[in-house]
Design a protein that fits this description.
The protein is mostly beta strands and 157 residues long. The chain has 1 helix and 10 strands. The longest helix has 14 residues. The radius of gyration is 16 Å and the shape is globular.
């Protein structure tokens, strides 16, 4: 059980583009695991740090496991905020819920979703932002007839 919990922490860190090359530090007010339900949960002041750049803060992080005890979905819930280095670019973002599905490398930000590529200062706002990393596809949605919003710089020649 302890080994599985440690694996879960490392897997949570992978959500946010972390590699195994650096130390991962996880802290929370409490941790709960239910092997029969296939659920692990970090609660209260959750902070996951990897190296100098990668950070995740949330009030709650849930880890869902299949029957083989492999994580298939992660959810950072309530005030999820992150900073990652991915493909040589630094991103930060936030949302009410951040979900990661490792099998297809899909990130889903829901509720007050925001994604910011720091280097180019590109910003995306919406109610839901879906990033399908393997396909290179971004899908931004809004609700209640509110527009999605993109902010980026254009060079004049």
């Amino acid at each position: 059980m302890v080994l599985q919990i440690i694996r879960a922490f490392v897997a949570v860190a992978m959500i946010y583009g972390f590699s195994y090359a650096n130390q991962v530090e996880v802290s929370a007010d409490s941790f709960y695991a239910d092997e029969k339900a296939g659920l692990g949960e970090l609660v209260g002041n959750v902070l996951i740090k990897k190296g100098k750049n990668d950070r995740l803060n949330a009030k709650r992080v849930k880890i869902y496991f299949d029957k083989k005890r492999q994580p298939y979905k992660y959810e950072a819930i309530s005030e999820a905020k992150f900073t990652i280095l991915l493909n040589g670019k630094t991103y930060n973002g936030s949302g009410d819920v951040l979900t990661y599905e490792p099998k297809n490398q899909t990130y889903i930000l829901k509720g007050n979703a925001f994604l910011h590529e720091i280097d180019s200062d590109k910003k995306i706002f919406g109610d839901e932002i879906i990033v399908e990393q393997l396909k290179g596809v971004y899908n931004v949605k809004s609700k209640d007839k509110e527009p999605v919003k993109f902010i980026f710089q254009v060079e004049d020649k």
